[in-house]
Write a structure and sequence with these properties.
One of its GO terms (molecular function) is methylmalonyl-CoA epimerase activity. The chain is of the alpha+beta class and about 140 residues long. It is about 25% helix and about 40% strand. The protein binds (S)-Methylmalonyl-Coenzyme A and cobalt (II) ion.
């Protein structure tokens, strides 16, 4: 499988503005994009950190998976995203190996990315996102 860099690290937050103000005022990192991703029922902000990014995730609905996560675990680290060249090929390879996938076909992510998740049970406790994007 042709894995690239850690594309981003997702952090679940209850209030995007308050969380952003920490990253901006304390660390001096500005978001390069803030976007609502309707399909995932959330709003995201992407903050660049030397070749990778922090993705803040604020749920926009009580039945969003991020809302459920915060309800159970509180705010905090939610997923790690690894960039791949060819997401269909990566998913086919994992499926052939019998790995438990959440998405067998890609969904729409932020910034035009195509994304798919591997179940935390398969990865020993980490929600893993595969992410294909044209450019960054
Ligand atoms: C915008 C986009 C982008 O980057 O472009 C994004 O990032 S979207 C990011 C937000 N979207 C997503 O996360 C979509 C994919 N996620 C999902 O489908 C769901 O959240 C699941 C991961 C399947 C969890 O579903 P649900 O909460 O209904 O199940 P559950 O609570 O019974 O959890 C099943 C088991 O997984 C664990 N679990 C749940 N969420 C976890 C997480 N984020 N990291 C690690 N473990 C996690 C639970 O503790 C539980 O463990 P035990 O079995 O040991 O009790
Ligand atoms: Co993500």
């Amino acid at each position: 499988m042709n894995l690239k860099n850690i594309d981003h690290i997702g952090i679940a937050v209850t209030n995007l503005q308050e969380s952003l103000s920490f990253w901006e005022t304390s660390l001096g990192i500005e978001p390069h994009s803030i976007e609502e991703v309707a399909e995932q029922k959330l709003r995201t902000a992407f903050l660049p950190v030397d070749g990778t990014e922090i993705e803040l995730l604020e749920p926009t609905s009580a039945d969003s998976s991020v809302a459920k996560f915060i309800e159970k675990h509180g705010e905090g680290l939610h997923h790690i995203a690894i960039r791949v060249d060819d997401i269909e090929a990566a998913l086919a390879e994992l499926k052939a190996k019998g790995i438990q996938l959440i998405d067998e076909t890609p969904r729409n992510g932020a910034g035009g990315a195509r994304i798919a998740f591997v179940h935390p049970r398969a990865t020993h406790g980490v929600l893993l996102e595969l992410c294909e994007r044209k450019q960054k």
